[in-house]
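My current task is to audit a protein record that another person submitted. I have pasted the whole thing underneath without changing anything:
***
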Amino acid sequence: MTEKEAQERIKKLRTVINHHRYLYHVRDTQEISDAALDSLKHELHQLEDMFPALITPDSPTQRVGGEPLSKFEKVTHAVRMLSLEDVFTEQEFVEWTNRMDRFLKKERSVFPLFGEVKFDGIAVSLVYKDGIFIQGSTRGDGSVGENITQNLKTVESIPLKLETHTASQLRPDIARHITKGEVEIRGEVVITKKTFKAINIQQEKKGEKPYANPRNLAAGSLRQLDPRITKDRNLVFLGYDVVTDMGQKTHEESHAILSSLGFRSDALARVLPEAADVFLFWRDVEKKREKLPYHIDGLVISVNDIKQFHALGVVGKTPRGALAFKFAPEEATTHVLDIQVQVGRTGVLTPVAHLEPVAIGGVTVSRATLHNMDEVHRLGVRVGDTVIVGRAGDVIPDIRSVLTDLRTGSEKRFHMPDTCPMCGGPIEKKEGEVAYRCTNKKCSALIREGLYHMVSKKGFDIDGLGPKIIDALLDQSLIQDAADVFDLTEGDLVPLERFGEKSAKNLIESIAHAKRLPVARFLYALGIFHIGEEMAITLARKFFGTASAKGRSFSVEECRKRLAALSVEDLEHVDGIGAKVAESIYAWFHDTHNIALLGKLDTAGIRLDPPHAPRVTQILAGKRIVVTGELEGMSRDEVRDVIRAYGGDPSESVSKKTDYVVVGKNPGSKYSKAQQLGISVLDEKAFRDLLQL
């Protein structure tokens, strides 16, 4: 191959590789496989090795440099990189808009705002000269940052050469601006939740300490002297500002320019005419927060008109015309007052930290789970420690880390008790398990927690029978186990606090109504170790299908006999049941205490219904379906029921074995994974059309 031929081939390869880089890292789609793209990159590497004079700074091969740096050089920002004022309440936000009114001396309605997500990452500046990426730097103190160009070149979502991927209706002459002179783009470098989790799993496998949070990991990754380490962290760049004057008059136009140049930016960003629109946007994004692929900590609200924005000026290091409207914090520091043990329905002893009350995510937190002794040892937490406590969505708060530098020496280590703290019975820890368990079947904690579980909505679903009433019934010795609930009378209930004749009658009617239920819910209600909702459905379908039960209801005793007759090997032959689950089921139905409980439930007249007859059209038979996002008019449980009714298998995770991913509103990372794996994706309409709903 001549140098001229190589030059032509190299040019084409770079164009194709950059096109597919843009599709994959900016548009979240791909036209060719990863292997095919790697092959193109390999060919380009070979040609540039053969003809080194043809290597240019914008070549895809130049993303990772050679020798590590000894230090980072300082960079002076042409335009200061400012910080933002934080507000946390609607009142604080209104006070800010009032100040804008006074400074601009105009009515509020004349300066619409622009809202975008505030990514929890590291702010960086990208400088392009004649369209080629020449310098990338950190914020630093706002005036002077560090040159991290080589590290930023490894971030695939940062183009090494500016190109107009989409025509901007707002600024059709963008191409003229990027081919000559300098262009500065600013944005945030982040690590996705998925990548962060994967990196920490690898850390733990290597016996190394996991990273505290994605932001710190992103910052540390950008400050690696060896760019090859940065590349392995799979960082992502999200643009938020075009500093160079390219004719844009608003922040909205800046985002349009970012998109046209092939940069990722906030897809939720929008113009917000009124303060009320800001509050609605804030609440909407906060609801979606957990489902987003990146960590965010609020919104950035700016005066949309750039001329007005600059007219408002700067106070210290913060612009008057923008602020960060933060969400309630998901983490806070507090003190561990005590560590006590909680006993669950399966007998597991869980250490729970009792905390000095602290507000996290708008909720006052006073307790945090420590999961098990392995976690206690990993954290090194002691009574009296100052700790960082986190809470995500509706998840139970947990201790993220211990601030050991604040210890005084008076802190006390926690030890798992030798006996159950509730009943004084023996506890055991089986080989290969992290949990300690109470082995006393008559332990009051096991009975109490088991009752909570049994009468829950996914179990017997007894309307009006909640934890407080169960506690009262146990405290008054009116019940000893779940079967006793079905022997209660109105006379037993009326003397209890908050009960009258009417409420007592209503609860007894609810109990009577609950005596007939699907066998899958009954199996779930029993609280057998390892038997969750899906496994209970699997057992019901396999051993109590319509054909075997002849479509009629059957007794608890019939249910017991059928399952007790199965060996561990029989159970292991069922798809989805492994050795541990099979042994757990076998042991439960051969335990004398459990046999006695089932006998009492049978005497109480509990009747079980077989699984529904399958639909004539089993269009999803044998198909594994994953649902992500919200479907109109159907809860997640209802969608699963529909999938099962058509013969499908609802699954929680996307893998190569997944047949379809159904995508509703506000989908999560499962949607992206489905695209990466080439799995068939159905929107809600296609899903309903397929099933003729």
